[in-house]
Amino acid sequence: MGNDDNNLRRLQRRFLIGAAAVLPISPFLFLQGHVTRWKVGLLPDAAGEKRGSAGEGSDSAKLFVIGESTVAGLGARDHSRALAGQFALQLSKHLKRRVDWTVLGKNGVTARRVIDELLPDMPDVKFDYILLGIGGNDVMKLSSPRKWRRDMIELIGRLREKNPDAVIFISNCPMIIMSPVIPEPSKSLLWKLSQMHNDNIIEFTSEMDRVFYYRQPALVEREGFFADGIHPSEQGYADWSAAMLKFFTQNYEW
């Protein structure tokens, strides 16, 4: 635990030094962010049912997907083509069982807001698997390493209380460096913070029981991945889900 505390202090110190360094240009970065959001616009949530099934058979596993805009399915026509449906499809192929999925997502939420705004609406069902899609807004809203760790540990703990036997998967912190629409210097600054959150969550989940984090990939295939330069397209959700399931099966026993 002592080494974890030292690493957290190191990350927090880097964050504060970086924040102080960019303070003189913060009005420009704020304006740059607003212009980018105006240019990109806002995609609608995925339409259709927030429950579904992937695969076949009478013996089914239950999957719950909760989190931010990628969970809400921005960039896809419906949830079967978004993260919930595509991850359920990959999970079904691995388990060789039908997977019944339920999704609860909201654009713009941080880990803290998932606890406050989404968890109260989580169905009173014992899920076998949970996918937590989170991290993008904690980067965009500049959550510090200390806040990220505190909120995520609480969120994971709350999910574990509700589902003591579930396997909990967590999607990677955002690959901001690959975005074709976020301009410099905002892109590089946000990418450094995303990498810090990635290193942070690798550490604090490493000893958690049946909690598996998808580490930031070294490469992302950009061709066809983005719907708007920030959120995945339907092809992006399919490719991302396949990559996550492959990582989880190759690196963890579950």
Describe the structure in your own words:
The protein is of the alpha/beta class and 254 residues long. It has a single domain (2-251), classed as Rossmann fold (3-Layer(aba) Sandwich). 48% of the residues lie in helices and 13% in strands. It contains nine helices and six strands; from the N terminus they run ααββααβαβααβαβα. It has helices spanning 2-22, 26-40, 69-72, 83-95, 111-118, 136-140, 145-162, 186-205, 234-251; strands at residues 51-54, 60-67, 98-105, 129-133, 167-170, 211-213. Helix 8 (186-205) links the parallel strand 5 and strand 6 (211-213). The longest helix has 21 residues, at 2-22.
Task: List the keywords.
alpha/beta, 254 residues, Rossmann fold, 6 strands, six-stranded mixed beta sheet
Helix content: 40-55%
Q: Can you tell me the number of structural domains?
A: 1
What is the rounded Rg?
Answer: 18 Å
CATH architecture: 3-Layer(aba) Sandwich
H/E topology pattern: HHEEHHEHEHHEHEH
Work out the helix count.
9
Which blocks of ≥5 consecutive residues have pLDDT under 50?
A: none
Which CATH top level class fits? Alpha Beta
End-to-end separation: 25 Å
CATH topology: Rossmann fold
The structure class reads: alpha/beta
* Major sheet description: 6 strands, mixed
Question: What would a concise description of this structure say?
Answer:
The protein has 254 residues and is α/β, with parallel strands linked by helices. Helices cover 48% and strands 13% of the residues. Helix 4 (83-95) packs parallel to helix 9 (234-251).
